[in-house]
Amino acid sequence: KQEVTQIPAALSVPEGENLVLNCSFTDSAIYNLQWFRQDPGKGLTSLLLIQSSQREQTSGRLNASLDKSSGRSTLYIAASQPGDSATYLCAVRSGTYKYIFGTGTRLKVLA
Amino acid sequence: NAGVMQNPRHLVRRRGQEARLRCSPMKGHSHVYWYRQLPEEGLKFMVYLQKENIIDESGMPKERFSAEFPKEGPSILRIQQVVRGDSAAYFCASSPLQPTSGGPYEQYFGPGTRLTVT
Description:
The complex is a heterodimer. By secondary structure, chain A is an all-beta fold. Helices cover 0% and strands 58% of the residues of chain A. Chain A has strands at residues 4-7, 10-14, 19-25, 32-38, 44-51, 56-59, 62-67, 72-77, 86-93, 99-101, 105-110. In chain A, strands 2, 4, 5, 9, 10 and 11 form a six-stranded mixed sheet that branches. Chain A has a five-stranded antiparallel sheet with strand order 1-3-8-7-6, with no helix packed on it. The termini of chain A are far apart. Chain B contains no helices and eleven strands. In chain B, strands 2, 4, 5, 6, 9, 10 and 11 form a seven-stranded mixed sheet that branches. Chain B has a four-stranded antiparallel sheet with strand order 1-3-8-7, with no helix packed on it. In chain B, strand 4 (31-37) and strand 5 form a beta hairpin. The radius of gyration of chain B is 14 Å and the shape is globular. Classes of the chains: A mainly beta, B mainly beta. At the A-B interface, strand 4, strand 5, strand 9 and strand 10 of A face strand 4, strand 5, strand 9 and strand 10 of B.
C-alpha cells in the first residue's frame, strides 16, 4: 500500500533563504508525482508535475526532483518570499488514476 | 476556459441533515474524482466517475455517502444524515483523458467545499 510522507511538517524561514521540502513514498511503482500549493481555506494550485521517466522539473524559482528508486522527491524553493507562505502538498499517482497525498509541509516565510 | 467549479464553497449542516456538494468539471472533461481532506490531513481519494458511471468508489464510506455524474449537469456528492466526523474539505478534480498507465495525465482540482457539521 502506497504511503506518502512529508518532512518537515512545518517550517519557518527568513525571507531570501533557499529551502528544500521533502517527500518520500513507499512504493516506487508510480506514474508521476505532483507538487501542489494550498493556501489557507483555498483549493490546490499545481506547481510542478514530474513524469516517472523524468528526474526533475523547473518553474521559475521552483525545482522539483524525483528519485524513484529511493522513493524520494524534493521541492527546492530559491530566494523565498513571504508570498511563498502556504502548505505544500506532494502527491503520487499510484495506480492508473489515484493520487496519494502526503499531509503537507506548512511553510512560513518571515519578512 | 473556466476551471473546475464547486459549490457551495462553504456549507453548514446540523447533525442528521443531508449535504449535497456539486462539482462542474472543466469544459471537455468527462472524468471526475472526489477527495476528502480532514483537518490536518492530506487529501484522500473517495470516488472516480465518468458520465453516468461509477468507476471506483473504493475510498467512499459504504453508508450515507453516494456520488453521481449524470449525463447532463454537475457531479453530486451526497452525504445523508451527516455527523460531526463528516466535517472536512471536499475537493473535486477532473481530467480530459482516459487515465492510462503512460503518457501525460493530470487532474485539475477545484477550490473545494468546506463542510461544517454542528
